[in-house]
Amino acid sequence: MGQTARKAFVSTIVVVAVVALALALWKLKVVIALVFLGFIVSAAMRPGVDRLATRRVPRPAGVLLHYLAVAGAIALLLWLVVPRAVDQVSQALGSVPTSRQELNRQAKHSTGIKHKVLVSVQNRLKKLPGAGSVLHGAVAIGVKAFEVLIGILFVFATAAYWIFARERAIRLVTSLVPRKHRRVVRDTWELIDLKLGAFVRGQLLLIAFVATVLSVCFWAIGLPFWLLIGVSAGIVEIVPVIGPIAAGALAITVGLTQSWHLALAAGIVVLALRLLEDYVVIPRVMGHVTGISPLLVLVGVTAIGLLFGGFYVVLATPLLAVLVTLVDVVVRDKDPAEEEVPAVLFAKESAS
Predict the structure, then answer these.
(1) How crowded is residue 79: how many other Cβ atoms within 10 Å of its Cβ?
(2) Taking a C-beta distance cutoff of 8 angstroms, is the pair 151, 296 a contact?
Protein backbone atom coordinates (compact mmCIF):
# COMPACT_ATOMS: atom_id res chain seq x y z
CA MET A 1 0.00 0.00 0.00
CA GLY A 2 2.78 2.39 0.87
CA GLN A 3 4.58 1.78 -2.41
CA THR A 4 1.35 2.24 -4.40
CA ALA A 5 0.67 5.49 -2.56
CA ARG A 6 4.18 6.74 -3.32
CA LYS A 7 3.79 5.90 -7.03
CA ALA A 8 0.42 7.64 -7.12
CA PHE A 9 1.92 10.66 -5.36
CA VAL A 10 4.87 10.84 -7.78
CA SER A 11 2.56 10.44 -10.78
CA THR A 12 0.35 13.24 -9.49
CA ILE A 13 3.36 15.50 -8.98
CA VAL A 14 4.56 14.79 -12.54
CA VAL A 15 1.13 15.52 -14.05
CA VAL A 16 0.79 18.75 -12.05
CA ALA A 17 4.30 19.80 -13.09
CA VAL A 18 3.57 19.12 -16.77
CA VAL A 19 0.31 21.08 -16.60
CA ALA A 20 2.02 23.94 -14.76
CA LEU A 21 4.82 24.00 -17.34
CA ALA A 22 2.29 24.02 -20.19
CA LEU A 23 0.39 26.92 -18.59
CA ALA A 24 3.62 28.82 -18.01
CA LEU A 25 4.69 28.34 -21.62
CA TRP A 26 1.26 29.48 -22.80
CA LYS A 27 1.52 32.64 -20.69
CA LEU A 28 5.02 33.24 -22.02
CA LYS A 29 4.10 32.50 -25.66
CA VAL A 30 4.81 36.08 -26.73
CA VAL A 31 8.31 35.97 -25.22
CA ILE A 32 8.95 32.55 -26.77
CA ALA A 33 7.76 33.81 -30.16
CA LEU A 34 10.03 36.87 -29.94
CA VAL A 35 13.01 34.70 -28.98
CA PHE A 36 12.29 32.37 -31.91
CA LEU A 37 12.03 35.40 -34.19
CA GLY A 38 15.39 36.58 -32.87
CA PHE A 39 16.90 33.18 -33.72
CA ILE A 40 15.48 33.49 -37.25
CA VAL A 41 16.98 36.97 -37.70
CA SER A 42 20.28 35.64 -36.38
CA ALA A 43 20.20 32.77 -38.87
CA ALA A 44 19.66 35.24 -41.71
CA MET A 45 22.59 37.42 -40.60
CA ARG A 46 25.09 34.75 -39.62
CA PRO A 47 26.55 33.99 -43.10
CA GLY A 48 27.14 37.71 -43.67
CA VAL A 49 28.73 38.16 -40.25
CA ASP A 50 30.93 35.10 -40.86
CA ARG A 51 31.94 36.41 -44.26
CA LEU A 52 32.94 39.75 -42.74
CA ALA A 53 34.83 37.93 -39.96
CA THR A 54 37.00 36.20 -42.58
CA ARG A 55 37.98 39.70 -43.72
CA ARG A 56 39.04 40.66 -40.20
CA VAL A 57 35.87 42.55 -39.35
CA PRO A 58 35.00 41.81 -35.68
CA ARG A 59 31.68 40.02 -35.21
CA PRO A 60 30.12 42.85 -33.13
CA ALA A 61 31.00 45.27 -35.91
CA GLY A 62 29.58 42.86 -38.47
CA VAL A 63 26.27 42.67 -36.58
CA LEU A 64 26.20 46.46 -36.28
CA LEU A 65 26.81 46.82 -40.03
CA HIS A 66 23.87 44.52 -40.73
CA TYR A 67 21.59 46.54 -38.46
CA LEU A 68 22.75 49.80 -40.03
CA ALA A 69 22.01 48.33 -43.47
CA VAL A 70 18.48 47.39 -42.34
CA ALA A 71 17.89 50.85 -40.86
CA GLY A 72 19.21 52.48 -44.03
CA ALA A 73 16.95 50.34 -46.23
CA ILE A 74 13.89 51.24 -44.14
CA ALA A 75 14.80 54.94 -44.20
CA LEU A 76 15.28 54.82 -47.98
CA LEU A 77 11.94 53.06 -48.42
CA LEU A 78 10.15 55.67 -46.31
CA TRP A 79 11.88 58.48 -48.20
CA LEU A 80 10.83 57.04 -51.54
CA VAL A 81 7.31 55.89 -50.65
CA VAL A 82 5.81 58.26 -48.07
CA PRO A 83 5.93 61.56 -50.04
CA ARG A 84 4.58 59.88 -53.18
CA ALA A 85 1.89 58.10 -51.21
CA VAL A 86 0.78 61.39 -49.67
CA ASP A 87 0.66 62.94 -53.15
CA GLN A 88 -1.48 60.05 -54.41
CA VAL A 89 -3.95 60.43 -51.55
CA SER A 90 -4.09 64.20 -52.06
CA GLN A 91 -4.69 63.80 -55.79
CA ALA A 92 -7.42 61.23 -55.19
CA LEU A 93 -9.22 63.37 -52.63
CA GLY A 94 -8.54 66.75 -54.18
CA SER A 95 -8.80 69.70 -51.82
CA VAL A 96 -9.37 68.65 -48.24
CA PRO A 97 -12.58 70.12 -46.74
CA THR A 98 -12.00 72.29 -43.69
CA SER A 99 -15.57 72.28 -42.33
CA ARG A 100 -18.51 69.95 -42.08
CA GLN A 101 -20.52 72.05 -44.52
CA GLU A 102 -17.76 71.88 -47.11
CA LEU A 103 -17.36 68.16 -46.43
CA ASN A 104 -21.08 67.58 -47.05
CA ARG A 105 -20.96 69.62 -50.26
CA GLN A 106 -17.93 67.76 -51.63
CA ALA A 107 -19.42 64.39 -50.68
CA LYS A 108 -22.61 65.15 -52.63
CA HIS A 109 -20.77 66.23 -55.78
CA SER A 110 -17.98 63.64 -55.74
CA THR A 111 -17.87 60.23 -57.39
CA GLY A 112 -15.81 57.05 -57.25
CA ILE A 113 -13.30 56.42 -54.53
CA LYS A 114 -13.28 60.07 -53.41
CA HIS A 115 -17.02 59.87 -52.71
CA LYS A 116 -16.57 56.68 -50.70
CA VAL A 117 -13.79 58.20 -48.60
CA LEU A 118 -15.68 61.44 -47.92
CA VAL A 119 -18.86 59.57 -46.96
CA SER A 120 -16.81 57.38 -44.63
CA VAL A 121 -15.32 60.51 -43.05
CA GLN A 122 -18.84 61.92 -42.60
CA ASN A 123 -19.98 58.79 -40.80
CA ARG A 124 -16.91 58.85 -38.59
CA LEU A 125 -17.49 62.49 -37.64
CA LYS A 126 -21.04 61.67 -36.57
CA LYS A 127 -19.69 59.05 -34.16
CA LEU A 128 -16.82 61.05 -32.69
CA PRO A 129 -16.19 60.10 -29.04
CA GLY A 130 -15.83 62.56 -26.22
CA ALA A 131 -12.54 64.16 -25.17
CA GLY A 132 -12.02 61.62 -22.39
CA SER A 133 -12.46 58.68 -24.75
CA VAL A 134 -10.09 60.23 -27.26
CA LEU A 135 -7.43 60.73 -24.57
CA HIS A 136 -7.90 57.17 -23.34
CA GLY A 137 -7.61 55.83 -26.91
CA ALA A 138 -4.49 57.91 -27.55
CA VAL A 139 -2.86 56.58 -24.39
CA ALA A 140 -3.76 53.00 -25.34
CA ILE A 141 -2.28 53.46 -28.81
CA GLY A 142 0.85 54.99 -27.32
CA VAL A 143 1.27 52.05 -24.94
CA LYS A 144 0.82 49.57 -27.79
CA ALA A 145 3.35 51.43 -29.94
CA PHE A 146 5.83 51.38 -27.04
CA GLU A 147 5.27 47.64 -26.59
CA VAL A 148 5.88 47.05 -30.30
CA LEU A 149 9.09 49.09 -30.13
CA ILE A 150 10.28 47.11 -27.10
CA GLY A 151 9.46 43.88 -28.92
CA ILE A 152 11.48 44.92 -31.97
CA LEU A 153 14.47 45.91 -29.83
CA PHE A 154 14.18 42.62 -27.94
CA VAL A 155 14.24 40.63 -31.20
CA PHE A 156 17.32 42.43 -32.52
CA ALA A 157 19.11 42.14 -29.17
CA THR A 158 18.32 38.41 -29.05
CA ALA A 159 19.60 37.98 -32.61
CA ALA A 160 22.85 39.78 -31.78
CA TYR A 161 23.49 37.78 -28.60
CA TRP A 162 22.66 34.52 -30.36
CA ILE A 163 25.28 35.23 -33.02
CA PHE A 164 27.90 35.14 -30.26
CA ALA A 165 26.39 32.42 -28.04
CA ARG A 166 25.31 29.97 -30.75
CA GLU A 167 28.48 27.85 -30.86
CA ARG A 168 28.61 27.53 -27.08
CA ALA A 169 24.96 26.46 -27.04
CA ILE A 170 25.59 23.83 -29.72
CA ARG A 171 28.55 22.44 -27.76
CA LEU A 172 26.47 22.34 -24.57
CA VAL A 173 23.54 20.54 -26.21
CA THR A 174 25.72 18.01 -28.03
CA SER A 175 27.60 17.25 -24.80
CA LEU A 176 24.31 16.19 -23.21
CA VAL A 177 23.49 13.52 -25.81
CA PRO A 178 25.23 10.17 -26.32
CA ARG A 179 28.46 10.40 -28.28
CA LYS A 180 27.15 8.34 -31.21
CA HIS A 181 24.33 10.87 -31.80
CA ARG A 182 26.36 14.07 -31.44
CA ARG A 183 27.23 14.46 -35.13
CA VAL A 184 23.60 14.02 -36.18
CA VAL A 185 22.40 16.53 -33.58
CA ARG A 186 24.95 19.12 -34.66
CA ASP A 187 24.27 18.59 -38.38
CA THR A 188 20.52 18.83 -37.77
CA TRP A 189 21.01 22.08 -35.89
CA GLU A 190 23.15 23.43 -38.74
CA LEU A 191 20.57 22.34 -41.33
CA ILE A 192 17.74 24.10 -39.49
CA ASP A 193 19.89 27.21 -39.19
CA LEU A 194 20.64 27.17 -42.92
CA LYS A 195 16.98 26.71 -43.81
CA LEU A 196 15.80 29.55 -41.59
CA GLY A 197 18.48 31.95 -42.82
CA ALA A 198 17.89 31.15 -46.50
CA PHE A 199 14.13 31.45 -46.03
CA VAL A 200 14.35 34.92 -44.47
CA ARG A 201 16.78 36.27 -47.07
CA GLY A 202 14.65 34.82 -49.86
CA GLN A 203 11.52 36.38 -48.39
CA LEU A 204 13.18 39.80 -48.28
CA LEU A 205 14.11 39.47 -51.96
CA LEU A 206 10.57 38.42 -52.84
CA ILE A 207 9.08 41.35 -50.92
CA ALA A 208 11.30 43.81 -52.81
CA PHE A 209 10.59 42.10 -56.14
CA VAL A 210 6.81 41.97 -55.71
CA ALA A 211 6.54 45.54 -54.40
CA THR A 212 8.61 46.92 -57.29
CA VAL A 213 6.97 44.94 -60.11
CA LEU A 214 3.40 45.45 -58.93
CA SER A 215 3.91 49.17 -58.28
CA VAL A 216 5.23 49.67 -61.82
CA CYS A 217 2.45 47.55 -63.36
CA PHE A 218 -0.30 49.25 -61.36
CA TRP A 219 1.08 52.65 -62.41
CA ALA A 220 1.10 51.51 -66.06
CA ILE A 221 -2.58 50.47 -66.01
CA GLY A 222 -3.64 53.62 -64.13
CA LEU A 223 -4.73 52.01 -60.85
CA PRO A 224 -5.43 54.56 -58.07
CA PHE A 225 -3.03 54.41 -55.14
CA TRP A 226 -0.72 52.27 -57.27
CA LEU A 227 2.29 52.84 -55.02
CA LEU A 228 0.47 52.14 -51.77
CA ILE A 229 -1.12 48.97 -53.13
CA GLY A 230 2.13 47.76 -54.70
CA VAL A 231 4.17 48.25 -51.53
CA SER A 232 1.40 46.71 -49.41
CA ALA A 233 1.32 43.68 -51.72
CA GLY A 234 5.06 43.26 -51.24
CA ILE A 235 4.83 43.50 -47.47
CA VAL A 236 2.01 40.94 -47.16
CA GLU A 237 4.19 38.43 -49.03
CA ILE A 238 5.53 37.67 -45.57
CA VAL A 239 2.19 35.99 -44.77
CA PRO A 240 2.19 32.68 -46.67
CA VAL A 241 -0.67 31.87 -49.05
CA ILE A 242 -3.12 34.34 -47.49
CA GLY A 243 -0.98 37.44 -48.11
CA PRO A 244 -0.88 37.24 -51.94
CA ILE A 245 -4.63 36.49 -52.06
CA ALA A 246 -5.36 39.55 -49.90
CA ALA A 247 -3.12 41.72 -52.10
CA GLY A 248 -4.94 40.59 -55.25
CA ALA A 249 -8.34 41.19 -53.65
CA LEU A 250 -7.30 44.71 -52.61
CA ALA A 251 -6.06 45.60 -56.10
CA ILE A 252 -9.26 44.32 -57.73
CA THR A 253 -11.45 46.15 -55.20
CA VAL A 254 -9.69 49.46 -55.83
CA GLY A 255 -9.95 48.85 -59.57
CA LEU A 256 -13.73 48.30 -59.28
CA THR A 257 -14.11 51.82 -57.86
CA GLN A 258 -13.15 53.06 -61.34
CA SER A 259 -14.34 50.39 -63.81
CA TRP A 260 -14.55 46.64 -64.24
CA HIS A 261 -11.93 46.91 -67.01
CA LEU A 262 -9.41 48.33 -64.54
CA ALA A 263 -10.31 45.67 -61.96
CA LEU A 264 -9.81 42.95 -64.58
CA ALA A 265 -6.44 44.43 -65.58
CA ALA A 266 -5.34 44.57 -61.93
CA GLY A 267 -6.40 40.95 -61.42
CA ILE A 268 -4.49 39.83 -64.52
CA VAL A 269 -1.37 41.67 -63.33
CA VAL A 270 -1.50 40.01 -59.90
CA LEU A 271 -2.19 36.57 -61.42
CA ALA A 272 0.66 36.92 -63.94
CA LEU A 273 3.09 37.92 -61.21
CA ARG A 274 1.90 35.03 -59.04
CA LEU A 275 2.58 32.56 -61.85
CA LEU A 276 5.97 34.17 -62.49
CA GLU A 277 6.81 33.78 -58.80
CA ASP A 278 5.64 30.18 -58.56
CA TYR A 279 7.33 28.88 -61.69
CA VAL A 280 10.39 31.10 -62.18
CA VAL A 281 11.35 33.35 -59.26
CA ILE A 282 10.73 31.09 -56.25
CA PRO A 283 12.39 27.97 -57.76
CA ARG A 284 15.46 29.99 -58.76
CA VAL A 285 15.73 32.19 -55.68
CA MET A 286 14.35 30.04 -52.89
CA GLY A 287 14.66 26.54 -54.34
CA HIS A 288 13.16 24.02 -51.94
CA VAL A 289 14.40 25.81 -48.84
CA THR A 290 11.82 24.60 -46.36
CA GLY A 291 10.74 21.35 -48.00
CA ILE A 292 7.08 22.06 -47.14
CA SER A 293 4.18 21.50 -49.52
CA PRO A 294 1.81 24.45 -50.16
CA LEU A 295 -1.09 22.47 -48.65
CA LEU A 296 0.83 21.92 -45.41
CA VAL A 297 1.74 25.63 -45.33
CA LEU A 298 -1.93 26.61 -45.78
CA VAL A 299 -3.12 24.24 -43.04
CA GLY A 300 -0.29 25.24 -40.71
CA VAL A 301 -0.81 28.97 -41.22
CA THR A 302 -4.56 28.65 -40.62
CA ALA A 303 -4.11 26.50 -37.52
CA ILE A 304 -1.46 28.74 -35.97
CA GLY A 305 -3.51 31.85 -36.74
CA LEU A 306 -6.61 30.37 -35.07
CA LEU A 307 -4.71 29.05 -32.05
CA PHE A 308 -2.39 31.96 -31.29
CA GLY A 309 -3.50 34.99 -33.30
CA GLY A 310 -2.43 37.01 -36.32
CA PHE A 311 1.09 37.89 -35.16
CA TYR A 312 2.12 34.24 -34.97
CA VAL A 313 1.16 33.61 -38.62
CA VAL A 314 4.47 35.22 -39.60
CA LEU A 315 6.29 32.45 -37.72
CA ALA A 316 4.21 29.63 -39.21
CA THR A 317 6.48 28.71 -42.13
CA PRO A 318 9.77 28.83 -40.14
CA LEU A 319 8.18 26.74 -37.38
CA LEU A 320 6.89 24.20 -39.91
CA ALA A 321 10.35 24.10 -41.50
CA VAL A 322 11.87 23.18 -38.13
CA LEU A 323 9.26 20.48 -37.49
CA VAL A 324 9.60 18.99 -41.00
CA THR A 325 13.40 18.86 -40.63
CA LEU A 326 13.13 17.08 -37.28
CA VAL A 327 10.65 14.58 -38.74
CA ASP A 328 12.99 13.92 -41.69
CA VAL A 329 15.93 13.25 -39.39
CA VAL A 330 14.24 11.43 -36.51
CA VAL A 331 11.41 9.54 -38.24
CA ARG A 332 12.56 9.18 -41.85
CA ASP A 333 16.20 8.63 -40.82
CA LYS A 334 17.64 11.15 -43.30
CA ASP A 335 21.24 12.27 -42.91
CA PRO A 336 21.15 16.05 -42.30
CA ALA A 337 24.73 16.38 -43.57
CA GLU A 338 23.62 15.28 -47.03
CA GLU A 339 20.76 17.79 -47.30
CA GLU A 340 21.50 20.85 -49.44
CA VAL A 341 19.87 24.23 -48.96
CA PRO A 342 19.95 27.21 -51.36
CA ALA A 343 21.88 29.74 -49.33
CA VAL A 344 20.27 32.79 -51.06
CA LEU A 345 22.66 35.74 -51.50
CA PHE A 346 25.63 33.62 -50.45
CA ALA A 347 27.62 30.79 -51.94
CA LYS A 348 26.02 27.36 -52.04
CA GLU A 349 26.29 25.58 -48.70
CA SER A 350 25.22 22.33 -47.15
CA ALA A 351 24.55 21.34 -43.59
CA SER A 352 27.90 19.57 -43.24
Answers:
(1) 10
(2) no
